[in-house]
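Why show two proteins at once? Because comparison is the fastest way to build intuition. When a single record is shown, students tend to memorize it. When two are placed side by side, the eye starts asking what differs. So, the first record is below.
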Amino acid sequence: MKTLAFDFSPYRLSGTVYGTLLNSSESLAALGDAVHQPPYKAAPKAPVLYVKPRNTLAGDGDAVEVPDAAAALQAGASLGLVIGRTACRVAESEALSCLAGYVVVADFSIPHESFYRPAVRFKALDGSCSIGPAVVPAASIADPDALPLRVLIDGVLAQSASTGGMRRAAARLLADVTEFMTLHPGDLLMLGVPHGAPLAKAGQTVTVEIDGVGRLENVLTKEKA
């Protein structure tokens, strides 16, 4: 993937890409009593993050390989929060002012049931984090927590959700994350994937749409020999 560039500061997505687990209210509820059992022992009190390293990054129109060992990939759709200025211990009331803009993210992973210390081998596949097609300026989105979101498989609607279904809204998530770590210009933080992300197989086309932000499309292919 070429570095995603845009026409306003910080001008490109050049930092670290962070995913957020269990921000979907439905995803946490689906764990039921298991959230109080080992290895979890309790519901998370702080945001649960994971990193999508540089090898995972892909763009609109890029092919995404499905490993031979996996029958399908889970196609997680998320709003991406692009950091525009250094954010450290920001107040919720000021958090959105730290953003340069928003972007569509398709986070592909091998299906797995445990959210505890997510395995790198499930989440960090080459080309498994598609971002694009463009970053929309933050000022263009009146409310990032009220955006309809859809996933289509081969043009057929497979999931319909909203960014409003998250336990932590965008500003709250930014405030809570920057309480324990600094985010820098060019970093990207995913708001989180709605519960029930659909599965897609090699040969299928996955499209993620977020109203007002964009439409991202990728074709899944078999792993190259």
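Second record. Ask yourself what differs from the first in the token line.
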Amino acid sequence: MSSTTIGILGAGRVGLNLARGLALAGHDVVVGRRDPAGPLPDQARDLGAQVRFTDQRAAAAAAGLVINATPGDTAVERLGAMADELAGKILVDVANATHHGPDGLPGDLVYQVGSLGERLQRALPATRVVKTLNTMLFVVMTAPESLTTPPTVYLSGDDQDAKDAVARLLGDLGWKSDRIEDIGDISTARATEAVMLLVTQVLRHKGLRPIAVSLSR
């Protein structure tokens, strides 16, 4: 994918990991924080000049492609309030809407019917939502080659051009084309979001090791 400005909503571990990977791939990145005046996390201090920080609304307005790395349980309300800034753009949703378990890991799904991806698309009808990268520990998002078994990344979305653009972006992060699986329209996000329950159970029993849910053929 040609270099472009990418907005990332959320400055937690997921958002900053993606910011670093995309900057290394040559993209300019603007990260939107809920409290732009607050101190930067330690892991944000060495990201380089290609990554800048602002508030979330300004980040959404500044970029042609925006990544949702905010908590999934509040994402619909938060992003719905940015409908004007996100209109006409691609929104890459990497979040999972889950309740927190007692150990801090994701617990039950917030939405027992449908998916976060579908709800975002309904809340943002002028935005092209693509669900991806939500079936793995966050470090694998930018380092698929780190796993001994080649991982699979899934794409869900109603707009094929948007999915093709996101597939190219995934390529910039090291994902090979034969490991990118387009599974259909945005309703298929129900399947990948539910898979996060499996990921969580493995992490709970094996520890926070890099893992991803992959297809074997």
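One difference worth noting in the second protein: The chain has one domain: 5-206.
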